[in-house]
Write a structure and sequence with these properties.
Length: 186
């Protein structure tokens, strides 16, 4: 693992454990074992480090969302696979999931970072736009429509991670179907 990646991983772990405010650059330096100059070689300051981590995790999630998507699949079949891909990413990466959720909803995230990070979701955005244009999906503001789906996935993932419910194939299929039913035109 490169020093840069080591810094990002340590930051993720510390923010997950202690929160944004309690995670200082000094603590990151201490836990990662890198020299302070190394951090400042890669990042301007703590805000730049956090923004970079957020952006890289958004890119990773964006890639996970479209994995195994075949352009020949039926629209609904793609929806189910996209939903499962998001869910799988969240369940397999609980620290990353929580970081993304917490930072995206915090006052710290800068608008320009959100805009840059949205570029990683372009295939997903195109998919939802085409669904609206074809009359398959409800004609709602695009980001609201996407957030309905992400919110459903996040809620189920959080409940499983927090051990409030156990995952079963039937529950997963019903959750995806419910999400589909909430955005498709009847």
């Amino acid at each position: 693992m490169s020093k840069r990646d080591q810094i990002l991983q340590t930051t993720l772990e510390l923010v997950s454990e202690l929160g944004f405010h309690a995670t200082s650059v000094g603590l990151i330096i201490k836990k990662s074992g890198v020299a302070s100059g190394t951090i400042y070689h890669h990042f301007k300051n703590k805000e730049d480090l956090i923004d970079t981590l957020y952006s890289e995790l958004k890119k990773e999630l964006g890639n996970a969302i479209i994995s195994n998507i075949d352009q020949e699949m039926a629209f609904k079949e793609k929806f189910f696979l996209i939903w499962k891909n998001i869910f799988r990413f969240y369940i397999e990466n609980p620290m990353k999931f929580e970081f993304l959720e917490d930072y995206a909803n915090s006052p710290f995230v800068r608008k320009e970072i959100k805009v840059i990070s949205q570029s990683y979701y372009k295939p997903l955005i195109n998919y939802f736009e085409s669904g609206i244009q074809m009359g398959i999906l409800r004609s709602l503001p695009l980001h609201f429509l996407i957030n309905i789906v992400f919110g459903n996935v996040a809620t189920l993932a959080r409940m499983i991670i927090m051990e409030e419910i156990e995952i079963a194939d039937e529950l997963l299929i019903n959750a995806i179907q419910s999400s589909w039913d909430s955005v498709k035109i009847n």
